[in-house]
């Protein structure tokens, strides 16, 4: 197959860089332009809520400037794309347009913000520096949104000696990813580390130094982080003739239109959009292979990890919130693993520092193995409904939490400013 003459990659983050690397590794010798909205070279985001926030590292570049140069790519930093025309095959920026034979969209996602709430967000390196500057031992941080990133920030801030309150309208942390039962285990972990949990309560407003809750209570804070999820960064693509919905809508191989592909957090492949580091690289390589007419074995097992305190949480698969879940102990060190299933078939796993279970059962998640066969490989069920007295997580005892669940501000209609919006 003939190689395209010009590839334009939009988004100089993980997905954009990995696409460029894969194209070169697979032998592409044509021209590549990489457009990035930020002024920084491509850097890694997972450390932002971990080492960078704690001040243990300043940044994790994905490649040095020399290594980027070695890729023979025309790099345009601080140059956000403002539009793309599939028909005219151009990408526009404020400083000019770039013609393409193939375009790869890798613009990631933007943090959701609550309208009227003056609070920080955490998506970029500059966000991490700003949040880090606001935290010191003894200061008070309120984290609005107890998803995985909110939980990571809470854990990092506790390690810095910060007083942390973790707020969520749902009754347990990270419910969207873990389900409520495993979310309660995570909540217990944070409580054991001194995080104040305010779960199952909506937000009524905020004032400088205060978060107002819809049960009438107030959380005083020196810094407030809103961590309520992200939306795919697609606003710049309006009018592009692409199908935009929950991201750039693509087929199962990442093709959005002839010669136009999307990868990473912005990309919706056959109805699924991932927001996890590992799938970005897999997608980028698969797209590079397609551009060059080569084979690629794209794996479809979603994987994520999250570092909180001294635990590494790891997830496999795409379990639905109402899937059945069994919490079991794995291996001689009795590592805690949640086993998710639907109609008797394995749909996913979440391990608490249980890498060996996650590695060994990967193909079973992909195959949807009979869950009874999987459970036989574990030792004891965890006691009761809860948590996991295990060698590595001896303190994971589920705490009772409120069961009330409603959207932010559903009670306080007088302050309609508080609705989720993308930034
Ligand atoms: C704080 C934090 C911690 C995380 N921790 C984990 C973790 O522990 N484990 C895990 O699995 N995942 C984690 N993730 C998720 C992971 O980092 C993302 O899935 C991954 O970065 C997505 O890569 P991407 O290239 O799609 O998007 P991004 O990394 O967001 O890169 C997109 C780039 O495109 C640029 N851009 C946007 N619009 C334009 C435009 N119009 N023109 C040009 N450029 C544009 C953006 O500025 C950005 O640099 C974390 C994410 C964050 C924010």
Describe the structure.
A 6-stranded mixed sheet has the order 3-2-1-7-20-19, with helices on one face. The protein has 10 helices and 27 strands. It folds into 3 domains: 6-107 and 254-291, FAD/NAD(P)-binding domain, CATH 3.50.50; 111-229 and 404-422, FAD/NAD(P)-binding domain (3-Layer(bba) Sandwich); 303-375, FAD/NAD-linked reductase, C-terminal dimerisation domain (Enolase-like, domain 1, 2-Layer Sandwich), CATH 3.30.390.30. Helix content is 22%, strand content 29%. Helix 1 crosses helix 7. It is an alpha/beta fold. Bound molecules: flavin-adenine dinucleotide (FAD). Residues 10-16, 35-38, 45-46, 48-49, 80-81, 106-109, 122-123, 149, 233, 236, 264-266, 275-278, 280, 304-306 line the site of flavin-adenine dinucleotide. Flavin-adenine dinucleotide is lined by residues 10-16, 35-38, 45-46, 48-49, 80-81, 106-109, 122-123, 149, 233, 236, 264-266, 275-278, 280, 304-306.
């Amino acid at each position: 197959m003939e190689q395209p003459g010009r590839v334009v990659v939009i988004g100089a983050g993980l997905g954009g860089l990995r696409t460029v690397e894969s194209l070169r590794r697979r032998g592409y010798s044509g021209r590549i332009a990489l457009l990035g909205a930020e002024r920084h070279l491509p850097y890694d985001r997972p450390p932002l809520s971990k080492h960078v926030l704690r001040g243990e590292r300043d940044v994790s570049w994905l490649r040095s400037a020399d290594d980027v140069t070695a890729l023979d790519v025309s790099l345009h930093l601080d140059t956000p794309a403002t539009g793309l025309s599939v028909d005219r095959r151009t990408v526009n920026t404020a400083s000019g347009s770039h013609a393409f034979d193939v375009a790869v969209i890798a613009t990631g996602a933007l943090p959701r913000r609550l309208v009227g709430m003056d609070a920080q967000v955490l998506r970029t390196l500059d966000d991490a520096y700003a949040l880090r500057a606001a935290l010191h031992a003894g200061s008070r941080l309120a984290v609005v949104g107890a998803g995985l990133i909110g939980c990571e920030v809470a854990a990092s801030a506790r390690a810095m000696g910060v007083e942390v309150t973790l707020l969520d309208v749902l009754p347990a942390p990270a419910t969207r990813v873990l389900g409520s039962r495993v979310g309660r285990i995570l909540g217990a972990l944070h409580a054991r580390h001194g995080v104040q949990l305010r779960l199952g309560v909506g937000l009524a407003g905020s004032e400088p130094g205060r978060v107002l809750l819809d049960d009438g209570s107030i959380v005083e804070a020196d810094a407030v982080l809103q961590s309520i999820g992200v939306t795919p960064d697609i606003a710049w693509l309006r009018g592009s003739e692409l199908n935009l919905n929950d991201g750039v809508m693509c087929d199962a191989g990442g093709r959005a239109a002839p010669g136009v592909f999307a990868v990473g957090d912005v990309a919706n492949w056959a109805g699924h959009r991932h927001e996890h580091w590992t799938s970005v690289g897999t997608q980028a390589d698969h797209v590079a292979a397609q551009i060059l007419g080569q084979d690629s074995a794209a794996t479809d097992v979603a994987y994520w990890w999250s570092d909180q305190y001294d635990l590494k949480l790891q997830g496999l698969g795409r379990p639905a919130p109402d899937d059945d879940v069994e919490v079991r102990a794995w291996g001689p060190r009795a590592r805690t693993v949640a086993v998710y299933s639907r109609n008797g078939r394995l749909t996913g796993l979440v391990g608490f520092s249980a890498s060996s279970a996650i590695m060994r059962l990967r193909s079973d998640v992909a195959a949807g193995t009979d869950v009874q066969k999987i459970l036989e490989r574990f030792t004891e069920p965890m006691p009761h409904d809860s948590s996991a007295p295990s060698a590595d997580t001896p303190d994971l005892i589920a705490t009772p939490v409120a069961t009330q669940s409603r959207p932010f501000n559903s009670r306080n209609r007088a302050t309609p400013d508080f609705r989720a919006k993308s930034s």
